[in-house]
Amino acid sequence: MTATAPQAGSAAPRRRWSSLTWLGVVLLVTVMILGSLGAFITTMRVRSYGPVSVAADGVTNLDIDVDAGALSVACGASEDFVLTQKNVTDRWYMNAEGGTVHVWQEPADNWLPLWLFGKPAEEVALEVPQSLCEQSLTADLSVDAGSLDVKADVDGATVDVSAGSLSLAGAANAVTVNVDSGSADLNIDDAEQVAVEVRSGSVEGAFTQVPEQLTADVGAGSASLALPAGNYTVNSNAEAGSVSNNLTIDSSAPAGAIDVSVDAGSASFEDKK
């Protein structure tokens, strides 16, 4: 038999796209649309606001509540408390009531998670009047899921961290720290009374003065504290956890009492370098 030659000009067989190819195309287009939509929504929601000022007269307490953003606090040249915010998606507020300055954030209802598309670099700062930056204020600092950076001298500080992070640097006569599953970083001068409670988070602290009384209660987290040489009395109780004491005992130095309890975590005490 003689083979039949292909006819000139006959069309080549069509290639059919597989279902996987079509699925890939659909996914690519969907991602492009969502990316453009997310960028548009983010741009529409980003705002910068003018400075907000609150008079310092009669103020004895500073109350800060960070929900999901980032706030930095430092001493400023102004005679008032000044809050500035740029490139924010959730607005911050400040007012004064009964001798307390309140600073808080009110997250907007986000039906689309902006973190999928990248949030802008927020710039939120609070300036504390220099006249109140000399250990004349008490500070209540609360962090839920954001971050708070404080550089100021206060009379006393109460810190509560749920799932975010906090940094506190400056002088304080008394410091109370409660950490759930977040983290706290402390660099404190002149502390006489220190109380640290950690559930499943972490606390790192450095103190320049021998505290008269320091208590540390650690659940499943960790506490690492650096202290200067002192005439310490240390009482410790560790169940399933561990306590490490590498402090220098100096009988001629100021006396300090340390009480530490650990369930399943760890607590360590080191010399302040």
Order of helices and strands: HEEEEEEEEEEEEEEEEEEEE
> How far apart are the termini?
99 Å
Low-confidence stretches: 36-43
Binned strand content: over 45%
Task: Name the shape in a single word.
Answer: flat
Count the DSSP helices: 1
The mean pLDDT is 87
Biggest sheet record: 20 strands, mixed
Total strands: the figure is: 20
Radius of gyration: 28 Å
Helix/strand-derived category reads mainly beta
Measured as a percent range, the helix fraction is: under 10%
What does this entry show, briefly?
By secondary structure, the protein is mainly β. The chain has 1 helix and 20 strands.
Account of the 3D structure:
- There is one protein chain.
- The protein is mainly beta and 273 residues long.
- Helix content is 10%, strand content 52%.
- It is built from 1 helix and 20 strands.
- It has a 20-stranded mixed β-sheet that branches.
- Strand 5 and strand 6 form a beta hairpin.
- It is flat.
- Mean pLDDT is 87; it is low at 36-43.
